[in-house]
Write a structure and sequence with these properties.
Distance between the termini of chain B: 55 Å
Strand content of chain B: 5-15%
Radius of gyration of chain A: 17 Å
Number of strands of chain B: 4
Strand order of the largest sheet of chain B: 1-4
Number of domains of chain B: 1
Largest sheet of chain A: 6 strands, mixed
CATH topology of one domain in chain A: Rossmann fold
Oligomer: heterodimer
CATH class of one domain in chain A: Alpha Beta
CATH superfamily of one domain in chain A: P-loop containing nucleotide triphosphate hydrolases
Number of helices of chain A: 10
Structural class of chain A: alpha/beta
Largest sheet of chain B: 2 strands, antiparallel
């Protein structure tokens, strides 16, 4: 049984169909990436899984339970944590308060402190900024806060929506290193990316989504070699 | 000098009332981004339920309210205040649950119109004979009319006395304690952090595992509880209780709303500041210029501040890096 199973998902915004029967699964311990162009339905997929959108049809199971109709805060409490596109930082709160919210539904204070320490070790830059208003941080720092905050929820599955968006190449490198590191310590990851080269490099398996349906899937290393992918997403001819 | 001091004392008392009410407007706006027009009716409910609870309690302990000259023990006032706050909290919770929650995903205009509907409903139900009735009443005197202190300025013919009444002090002390409590709650507790997170972005807050609906409920209850306290304190100062739909109530709510806007709507500290600014403008304008235009000063102040600082005094538009 996979940790996350998505079956035949249909999602619409009014009359516009964003997802037309997508299926995917993420096994425990994997990094799975979902790549595709603008408007392909990547974010819609994540928003539906985390409960912000309700599918018209299809099934979503997490850890064996259906979460198709679950409210987003309950999905989060089940251990499925979504770092939304644009990072979802609370700019009006301090960095420390942002981190606190990551552990909102937890009461195991001792472990929270340990997790906080671990997250801050991954992102030393965040530690330097704890008392600052989160809105004053640079884009890269905000992304780090967003991931650190997600780790404080102790996720079973971490969904990252375009963590590299708008960041300098060097920062992107750091972020991807950390993604690999988080995975190594046992967290399963579903990564949505436009930066296909980086994503395929870090992931074990990949899905390619185009206008609302999954067009290809397979081991990331194989997809990276496929001619179609190289032309369409890697810019290599 | 004496007139100035006396006006100052009144302004501080009235200012804390405006601030209490403004907090309710600003907190609900901060979270749901709509003006809860029914908020001023919760103040009325607080005032009138204080009246009802007082009569009930005084009867219970065998005090004759007709021709009452000495106020009852101080605990009566405290119990009435607590009862009235609890009652309004429940009503606020219910209103949000029944009227606003079903519209959570609806356009904001629909919610605004619903709020006006709720306001009219409360006003008219309040006038029913079975509820509060449509005639004015006299609030039983719960607090002693004592003067805590009095000063005399000047000598002989021109001597003027300045009085600090117990009621004014009670209003200020009660209101400030409640506001400090609110300040602590919003800025130093986990619930408060959640509240500010929801006010910034509802969806992302939900992704953190924050039960958004519960946070909204808590906000409404808090706002209503503060409004009830304001209603109670108001009738302590002005015991002739106007009927529930009287324009004096509408104006009271409107000025508190102006206070919230002047302070920067959505900003908790701004609401408190706005409350005092409004009261000072109103009271000093009334004293030094003319009483006839006391409402005008408030609204002129609103226009002036919006011209200079459209976001309100403390409503800083935070620049975000993307």
């Amino acid at each position: 049984m996979s940790l996350l199973e998505v079956e035949n998902l249909h999602v619409s915004y009014g009359a516009i169909q964003a997802l037309r029967g997508c299926s995917l699964h993420v096994d425990e311990g994997e990094i799975v990436t979902l790549i595709g162009g603008n408007g392909a339905g990547k974010s819609t997929m994540l928003r539906t899984i985390s409960g912000l959108l309700t599918p018209k049809q299809g099934e979503i199971r997490f850890d064996g339970n259906s979460i198709r109709k679950a409210a987003p805060h309950l999905v989060a409490r089940a251990g499925l944590i979504h770092v939304p596109e644009g990072r979802g930082i609370f700019a009006n709160l301090t960095v420390e308060e942002n981190l606190q919210l990551g552990a909102f539904s937890r009461t195991d204070h001792q472990q929270i402190r340990e997790d906080r320490e671990r997250a801050l070790t991954l992102f030393p830059r965040v530690r330097e900024r704890l008392r600052q208003a989160a809105g004053t941080l640079s884009g890269g720092e905000q992304q780090m806060v967003a991931i650190a905050r997600a780790l404080l929820a102790r996720p079973k599955l971490l969904m990252l929506d375009e963590p590299s968006l708008g960041l300098a190449p060097q920062v992107v490198q750091t972020i991807f290193q950390v993604i690999r590191e988080i995975n190594r310590t046992g967290t399963t990851i579903l990564l949505v990316e436009q930066n296909a080269a980086m994503a395929l490099n870090v992931a074990h398996r990949a899905y390619v989504i185009e206008v609302g349906s999954i067009e290809m899937e397979g081991p990331a290393s194989e997809l990276a070699k496929s001619d179609d992918i190289r032309k369409a997403y890697l810019g290599i001819h | 000098m004496s007139d100035f001091t006396q006006t100052l004392i009144t302004a501080i008392a009235i200012g804390s009332l405006y601030a209490l009410i403004a907090l309710g407007y600003t907190m609900v706006y901060g979270i749901l981004k709509f003006i809860n027009f029914a908020h001023s009716d919760i103040v009325v409910l607080g005032a009138w339920s204080s009246y009802t609870f007082s009569n009930w309690l005084l009867k219970l302990i065998g005090v004759e309210t007709k021709g009452m000259t000495t106020p009852p023990a101080i605990w009566v006032a405290v119990v009435v205040l607590v009862l009235s706050m609890a009652f309004c909290g429940v009503v606020g919770f219910t209103i949000e649950r029944l009227a606003y929650r079903p519209l959570r995903r609806a356009p904001r205009l629909n919610v605004l119109i619903t709020a006006i509907g709720v306001s009219l409903l409360l006003q008219n139900v309040g006038q029913l004979d079975q509820v509060f009735g449509a005639s004015p009443q006299k609030m039983p005197q719960l607090l002693p009319a004592a003067e805590l202190a009095s000063f005399t300025f000047g000598e002989g013919e021109s001597a003027r006395k300045v009085v600090i009444g117990l009621v004014d002090v009670m209003i200020f002390v009660t209101a400030s304690s409640l506001m400090l409590l609110m300040q602590y709650l919003v800025f130093h507790t986990k619930q408060g952090v959640a509240m500010r997170a929801v006010s910034y972005n509802t969806d992302t807050a939900a992704l953190m595992g924050i039960p958004v609906d519960r946070v909204v409920s808590i906000t409404f209850v808090l706002g209503s509880v503060l409004a009830a306290a304001a209603g109670f304190l108001y009738v302590m100062k002005y015991p002739s209780l106007n009927q529930p739909a009287h324009t004096i109530w509408v104006l009271l709510g409107l000025k508190a709303f102006v206070a919230a806007v002047i302070g920067g709507i959505g900003n908790v500290r701004g609401a408190v500041l706005g409350g005092f600014v409004i009261a000072f403008v109103e009271q000093f304008g009334a004293f030094y210029i003319s009483t006839n235009y006391r409402d005008v000063y408030v609204f002129v102040m609103l226009i002036l501040i919006l011209l200079v600082r459209p976001g309100g005094l403390l409503g800083v538009t935070t620049r975000e890096k993307v």
